[in-house]
Amino acid sequence: MLNKSFIIINPNSINFKLAQNYLDKHKIRYYVSYEKKHLKEIIKNKIKEGIDKFIICGGDGTINSFINLIMKLPDTEMGSIKIGIIPCGRANDLARYMRIPLDFEKALEKADRSNTRKIDLIKINDNYMATGGGIGLPSEIIQDVDNFSSGLIGKFFKNILGDSLYFIFTIKKFIFGYKDIEVKSDKEDKLLAIYIMNQSFLGKRFNLAPEAKNDDGYFDVKIVKTPPSFLSNFITLSKGINGRLSELYWVKEKKSNKISFFLNKPSYFMGDGELLEKCDKFMIEIIPKAINLIC
Question: What percent of the chain has pLDDT over 70?
Answer without folding.
Answer: 97
